[in-house]
Amino acid sequence: MPRTPRVEYENAVYHVMARGDRREAIVLDDGDRELFLDTFAEVCGRTGWQVFAWVLMDNHYHAVFRTPEPNLVSGMQWFQNAFTRRLNARRHLWGHLFGGRYKAIPVEDNATGPRGSVVWRDYLRTTIDYVHLNPGRAGLVDGGESSLLGFAWSSAAKGYALPPSKRPAWLVVEEGLELLGCPDTVAGRRRFVERLDGFIREEKGDPRFDELPLSAHFERAWYWGSQAFRERIMARIEKLGARKSRNYRSRREGPAKEHGEKRAQAIVAEAAGHFGMTEEDLRQDRRGDWRRSSVAWALAKETSVPHEWIAERLNLKSAANASQQIRRFRLVSEKDLAKEVRNWKQSRNVA
To answer: Helix (H, G, I), strand (E, B), or coil: what is residue 163?
Structure first.
């Protein structure tokens, strides 16, 4: 059976799921979980994704997010590859971490089904609830003595229950709370948690949600929305098929490349301004000058541009040289960096 094609478009919303190879664990301790969350935060910064919900279980994860630009494929490829490499390095392992292809189900975010049917609520709202209720369905919390807040590794505890100043910028809690009918206040956030705990108590391990077996649906389905939404997605798939043979590669890489380069250009401009120099001055090869290396490191950390782009933009001769500069800067301790700054100032009689 052929694979369902990835459908990418501006402001698309997806429910993404991935399991460990042979359903084995993808995280073993809180250090692994922090690594997962740090890598996920990094891909959100690289791609501009706006996340409604996420949950990390021992052998799989779920995430619901909007892609302002059509960059699902390139973003997911970077995220899962980066997390696999980092986890393998941390645990001195090698090989695959995830089993098979991740699922990415387009979700309708602006319509509801008819009242009286099995689903009459907003599809996106239902998906957010489904993701947050995973720890309850796994028996990790019971919604009573052990509240959902006792499970730390989801956006419920690390986002929706927190005030705005303590939430990551990539998590769109205010919009999610509005969808769920809860204001972004202390009382509204408490109501959000109590509502989910109530669902867990009512279900008592039943995998169904509001009379619809969503677990089975999300395992098999390729979209989540109304019939009209399905027809729109089908039209996009047909259009994709017509273009795929001629320019499929450029179609996949173009939006991600464009997003990364916009952010990278902004970082270079900001860095030059911070150092009080022009962008052309920043490109100059000055022996012992750490500033160009620091910008290369920031570009590698904050964007998806390749090292070839960094090398060309900062006049670093080659991608290999850019990689070496980035690696060296990453290993520099704060003490050594401060020493380099002092030496650089003294060599130029800078006060």
So the answer is: coil
